[in-house]
């Protein structure tokens, strides 16, 4: 079964003829976002290790690497398996703790397929399992000790636990102590810049103290990794991290558009990830119905925002699994363009990214790691 | 890349060793649900045409057909393409209007692969496009005219518009007038039974009047299709529909568990669709972190409900894209079983259903139509 939009590649106006709903990437905005973050990271002296949980796509990842990224992050082992052979990928970090009967072995099996495989741990049990898997497989795994930024989602609770786990890792066969991670997820979407600076700093306090103590113990962490699109402009000033895990900047969703990303207020990033949908019913006075609902947009955050095909300011409302309303008198069969509300879980609904240049469909990129949360 | 859980099929206790999160189907509950709805439909004299937008899976569909279903519903053309060769499938209804440059042709291309292909229309433009596609392809399409139940999502507005479109369809080349549809989505989740009877009746008033007028005009609708899991026990008493489109009954999610499905209050259906997740971090006093968040559960409705692996009444809370909290002191690496909040958009996140019999994994069923909203 070939994709019903494949025949439209290269056709002028093909974007308007897409089988909908379609996940669309504005090529110019996407390329500008990649260049802007690469430049910002370079200027700040931080290494950039983009988080691929956002896009789950080799074609996107390869372009981030070509622009100077030192490697990639993924959240899950399944994503690592799906993206391990991304062109140009030399270092891959799995940012969630890995546990269970099969996951440590799956991680170890990947290590021989890449220059550097890094994986997070926040418990003795997790580190010990990685050690056993590495020894059984005959590889060395780089283990990054995760530090809780204060939200208690993952990570060691405080410097004592962090230092102890790092020392344990350093002594386990098959493992190399590769550094510390601290991802302040709660700081990323604080809309006010100055508040975000304060919260970001607080979140990194335990990481900074742990790194200092480990250095004094002769176990200096090779990398200190964390940060996101919400704090990319702050991290250099805080002076703690050595590398940045930002992901959403490539797409810029409705959520991040509400965040004042830089001190001056200007955002270096543009909305690049869109959904093209179609009016499929128009029998009422107040709105028309489009073919995109809960199965086409993430529903954990704000609503999708209409940015094309309808008068400025037209509102979208969910109408169940398959449909949505646009409050505008649109023609039956016409297409509407919406910015995605929260990019990561929206991408996870689609198998292909439709790359567009204006109204021309230029490529279909498979989303190789879609659904690979395991 | 084979599925990391494939090697566990048939192993005693394999369910506890799954790579997680995994979408799990309790075989006994699932089979009981299929049998219960088949029996209820038979007793009521209504034909059963289960909605496959719920499960998107040939293996589930084939079992519904084997139990006596007259055919299937799908919401979208892409689902029809993915499920067209389901064993035992003789009649397939696409329940949303089909518009755009390619969709009518894609529908027509399917007609020769099945005994009966039915598709909904609610506009002249839509019916005309189907007629052109059918003529160009050399097939006959059965068109079901959609009637608005009062929520203005899709459907003709009132009996005048419905009768006029049915007459138009009957006169167009390549089309056959196949009946009327009225799906009262807003009635399905009203938790009180008596209120649901009243709303259900009101929603079908335009369908009933349209059917009577068409019959008087010599254009009796061959089928009157609609209803859902929320109204399955009501429809026979209302005496309007000839067939029932229920879908969620096969799985029973948290949402439908809150609905009093029958007059006596007893539900003939059991929770069958579950997510198996794993504790991957346990460094805080109040809760543990599992590996299932926004990418593993639908977020449009209630929260997932913990039903195994933790003390009764333990609560789940979302902790972002990849993680959730369970408020219980669980062991690191242990598994937790959760009932899915809203089944349709949850299934749409996964590529495989893990069929379990107790603690044994007995099969992996591909979810062929996952993501095919286009």
UniProtKB/TrEMBL annotation, chains A, B:
Family under the similarity heading: Belongs to the DSD1 family.
PANTHER family: D-SERINE DEHYDRATASE (PTHR28004:SF2), ZGC:162816-RELATED (PTHR28004)
One function term, GO molecular function aspect: D-serine ammonia-lyase activity
GO BP annotation list: D-serine catabolic process
UniProt cross-references to Gene3D superfamilies, sorted A to Z: Alanine racemase, D-serine dehydratase-like domain
Species this chain originates from: Oleomonas cavernae
Annotated SMART domains: D-ser_dehydrat
Transmembrane segments: none
D-serine dehydratase-like domain span: 272-357
Keywords: Lyase
InterPro entries: Ala_racemase_N, D-amino_acid_metab_enzyme, D-ser_dehydrat-like_dom, D-ser_dehydrat-like_sf, PLP-binding_barrel
Protein's UniProt name: DSD1 family PLP-dependent enzyme
Tagged with keyword Transit peptide: no
């Amino acid at each position: 079964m070939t994709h019903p939009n494949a025949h439209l590649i290269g056709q002028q106006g093909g974007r308007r003829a897409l089988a909908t709903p379609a996940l669309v990437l504005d090529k110019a905005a996407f390329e500008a976002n990649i260049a802007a973050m690469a430049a910002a990271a370079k200027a700040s002296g931080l290494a950039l290790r983009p988080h691929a949980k956002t896009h789950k796509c080799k074609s996107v990842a390869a372009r981030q690497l070509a622009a100077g990224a030192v490697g990639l992050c993924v959240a899950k082992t399944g994503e690592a398996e799906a993206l391990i052979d991304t062109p140009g990928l030399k270092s891959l970090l799995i940012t969630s703790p890995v546990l269970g009967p099969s996951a440590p072995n799956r991680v170890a099996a990947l290590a021989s397929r890449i220059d550097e495989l890094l994986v997070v741990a926040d418990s003795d049990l997790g580190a010990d399992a990685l050690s056993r898997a590495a020894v059984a497989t005959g590889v060395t795994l780089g283990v990054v000790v995760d530090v809780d930024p204060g939200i208690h989602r993952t990570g060691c609770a405080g410097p004592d636990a962090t230092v102890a786990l790092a020392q344990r890792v350093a002594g386990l066969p098959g493992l190399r102590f590769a550094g510390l991670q601290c991802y302040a997820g709660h700081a990323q979407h604080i809309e006010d810049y100055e508040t975000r600076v304060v919260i970001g700093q607080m979140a990194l306090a335990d990481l900074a103290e742990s790194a200092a103590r480990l250095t004094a113990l002769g176990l200096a962490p090779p990398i200190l990794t964390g940060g996101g699109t919400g704090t990319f402009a702050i991290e250099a000033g805080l002076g703690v991290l050595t590398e940045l895990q930002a992901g959403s900047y490539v797409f810029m969703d409705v959520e991040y558009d509400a965040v004042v990303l830089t001190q001056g207020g200007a955002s270096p990033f543009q909305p690049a990830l869109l959904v093209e949908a179609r009016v499929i019913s128009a029998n009422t006075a107040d709105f028309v119905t489009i073919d995109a609902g809960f199965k086409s947009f993430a529903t954990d955050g704000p609503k999708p925002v209409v940015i094309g095909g309808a008068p400025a300011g037209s509102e979208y409302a969910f109408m169940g699994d398959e449909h949505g309303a646009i409050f505008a008198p649109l023609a039956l069969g016409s297409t509407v363009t919406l910015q995605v509300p929260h990019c990561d879980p929206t991408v996870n609904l689609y198998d292909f990214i439709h790359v567009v240049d204006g109204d021309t469909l230029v490529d279909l990129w498979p989303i190789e790691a879609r659904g690979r949360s395991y």
